[in-house]
Amino acid sequence: MADNVYEGMFILDANRYGRDPETVSGQIPEMIKNAGGEVLVSRLWEERRLAYPIQGHRKGAYWLTYFRIDGEKLSELERKCQLADTILRVLFLKVDPRITDALISHAKSGHAPGKSGEERPKAPEEKAPSDDGVTAAVDNEDNDESSATGEEEEN
Q1: Cβ-proximal residues to 152 (8 Å cutoff; 6+ apart), any chain
Q2: Mean pLDDT, residues 66-85
Q3: What CATH number does the domain located at 3-109 have?
Q4: What is the SS3 assignment for 15-57?
Q5: Is the pLDDT of residue 113 over 70?
Q6: What Cα–Cα distance (Å) separates residue 25 from each residue in 112, 119, 130?
Q7: Predicted confidence band at 115 (pLDDT cuts at 50, 70, 90)?
Q8: Which residues in 48-76 are b (16+ Cβ under 10 Å) and which e?
Q9: Quick one: which of 137, 16, 148, 139 has its CA closest to 87?
Q10: What is the pLDDT of residues 35-65, one digit of tens each?
Q11: Cα(147)–Cα(145) distance, integer angstroms
Q12: Rounded CA gap, 96 and 99, in Å?
């Protein structure tokens, strides 16, 4: 069977990763190689608070890996990940061959979501707060009254 490219998102134990990042993250490429795969890119995505506790952990280190492996060996790799103490969760996605190069080059560049340093642009419906903490939407009482009664002002 032909080798496919997969994206692996690993949630690692943030406490163990903080104490020894090389060892904890180094076991992922090692497991992939032992299963007969080839690591294309492997890097830290981000560390963050989890949406809900996983095995009693409230924080996790997200590790992104792109690798090439035979599809039949993927279940073996997934089982090894489930048995590893430092890996809380894992998700494997098959990458469409048409976008493989773009995803790998993007992962090599090291861009993480929300880490660009730029402020998020405001949507048109969002209003900036004014000095007194009230939204800056202007209420024109005359216009409100006339629109409620159906009257129009004459100039």
Answers
A1: 146
A2: 95
A3: 3.30.70.60
A4: HHHHHCHHHHHHHHHHHHHHCCCEEEEEEEEEEEEEEEEECCE
A5: no
A6: 17, 31, 47
A7: very low
A8: eeeeeeeeeeebbbbbbbbbbbeeeebee
A9: 16
A10: 999 999 999 999 999 999 999 999 999 999 9
A11: 6
A12: 6
C-alpha to C-alpha distance for 3 and 72, rounded to whole angstroms: 9
> What token pair was written down for 4?
């496919």
Of 88, 48, 50, 66, nearest to 7 by C-alpha is: 66
Rounded Cα–Cα distance for residues 63 and 76 (Å): 19
Confirm if 5 and 66 have CB atoms less than 8 A apart.
Answer: yes
Span 6-33, pLDDT tens digits? 999 999 999 999 999 999 999 999 999 9
DSSP class of residue 113 equals T
Give the strand pairing for 3-13 and 38-54.
unpaired
What residue has token string 């773009």? 102
Quote the pLDDT of residue 154: 52
Which two tokens mark 51? Answer: 């949406």
Find out whether 50 and 114 touch, Cβ atoms under 8 Å: no
Domain range summary for the chain, segments of one domain joined by +: 3-109
Residue 116 has pLDDT above 70, yes or no: no
